[in-house]
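Lab meeting, item 3. Inverse folding demo.
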């Protein structure tokens, strides 16, 4: 799995499932960088074969509608879509 790690302060395990062509996904990446938190992301549309199948199973577990972006925090909490307030609250910032 080709997760990209973005360095920053530890605010828990943050995984962003995104699409490379999605404007809201880009805004979410930018916002997380502005907050200065460490996170991992994967552009799911750039995957192929088994790797894509495996990631999409994970995505569907969190969001059966498969809309993006999807932020998973500490493997317990999920935010679907770009919502600055909800992201800040979830990360306790």
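The presenter then showed the designed sequence:
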């Amino acid at each position: 799995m080709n997760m990209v790690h973005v360095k920053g302060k530890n605010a828990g395990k943050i995984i962003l499932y995104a699409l490379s062509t999605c404007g809201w996904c880009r805004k979410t990446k930018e916002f997380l960088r502005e907050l200065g938190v460490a996170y991992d992301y994967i552009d799911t549309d750039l995957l192929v074969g088994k790797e894509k199948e495996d990631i999409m199973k994970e995505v569907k577990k969190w969001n059966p509608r498969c809309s993006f972006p999807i932020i998973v925090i500490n493997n317990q909490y999920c935010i679907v879509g770009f919502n600055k307030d909800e992201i800040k609250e979830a990360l306790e910032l």
